[in-house]
Structure formats: structure tokens, C-alpha cells
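FW: tagging you since you asked about this chain on Friday. Here's the raw sequence from the shared folder, copied in full. Didn't touch anything.
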Amino acid sequence: MNKERKKCLLFAGTTEGRLLAERFYRARIPCTVCVATDYGAQLFAGGPLLESVQTGRLDARQMEALIRKERAAVVLDATHPFAVEATQNIRAACQAAACPYLRVLRDRTKQETDGYGGSFCFADASAAAAFLERQEGNLFLATGSKELRAMAERISDLSRIYVRILPSAENLRLCESVGLKGGQIICMQGPFSVSLNKAMLEHCQARWMVTKDSGAAGGFLEKRRAAEQAGASFVVIQRPHETEGYPVGEVWDRAMAYL
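HL: got it, structure written out here
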């Protein structure tokens, strides 16, 4: 009788997560991919991983139950660098289930290591919004949907705000709930080139471009260059500091030791 092949559980939703999922498929290693939203699952649509995608936000107990159900030999955390709560839950679930845990660390940008010279930097979206409330001019928010409410609640003149979000019904409902109108919303899936970022800034007549430092995989450098070319000031929400984890290639190598 053939021995059952060990399985990996991958929490994805990022470029690194998709790359790892593709590598598991090519290597014919069983892998269950977990994503938070239906839109995240659609990124696998039509591909060989569709049947192994699990959708929905899970708390730590639900994650632990899934680890045990899947009999995972190792768990890979390739969630977004800003998804702090998700990472805490995954780590706690692995500890409770006595399952090895590997965190993918996204490469840091040169601008981050150099101190974001010439940019306005803030620890979170609320602090950035408080600063921008005191400034003049339109705001182009390339921070995604998660920070939108915190920003909108602190900007008294909502007509100044233009936002770029992933194209999902959930995100559109969020934009409407904070008071944004259709002409203020751009729904597109990246990555975006410098020229396309610049065109959007100019279309919105943006004086300010706001982004999270999500690294090269998140198009940070293209956003910064576009802001420079469009004459827009650059506002950065700094990435939460992480010390535990490995680059995506090393995570793959370490995962193989368990599979």
C-alpha cells in the first residue's frame, strides 16, 4: 500500500503565496491554500489549485482545527506584511497543534533601509490621516481597503479622497459605506507600472500619494517613482517590524525538510 504523501497548509493572499502554491503543484506535493476572500480565491480560478483553495477568515481556533483536519506536516504563512492579526493567529494555531510554522518575510525596499528620504512616514493609517487632514489638495490612496475606513473617518472633506482598491463587491460596499462616490473609486488588480500610476495621479489631480510599504512585490518603487514624476508628495505607512521568518526561497527549502 502506498504511503500517504505529507501535506502542506499555505496561508496565502500575496504574490509570494501564489508563487509557493505554483511550486507545490509543479512538484506534485499536496497543498491546501487558504485565502481570506472570494476575490483571493478567484486568482486561482481555472488553475490546477482551484479544488484545494479554502476561502474565509479564520480565528486561531478555526486555524488549529484546520491544521488537524488536514494533518498538515508544515504550515506556511505567506499572508500580507500588514496582516498582523492573521500572522498572530496562524502562529498560535501552529503552537496549539504542535505543527511546524514557517513565516515568509517580504524583502525590504532600499528606501525603507535608507529611511524613506523625502517622504512623509507614519506608523499607521490613523496618524497619516491626521497629518493629511491639515494639508491641502487631493489624496490618492493606494493603501488598499483595510486602511480606508481609518483614513476616511479622519478626513473631513471626503471629496479630496480617491482610492484604488481590488475589484470586489465587498470593497465597493466599503467605499460606499464611508461616503465615497463612483468617480472617486478605481477598482483594479495590480501590479501597476510607473506610467499607469502616474496617469492615475494626474487624472485625480492628486497632491498626495499614500501607500503602505509593501515592498517590491507590492509595487512600492513604481508608486514612488510615479509620485515623483507627477509632482505628488509621497506618504508612507511603515511596515510592521518582523524578525521571525525567511525569504520565500528559503521558506520553500525549509518546508521540503518536513514533506
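FW: The longest strand covers residues 206-212.
HL: agreed, and The mean pLDDT is 88.
FW: great, closing this out.
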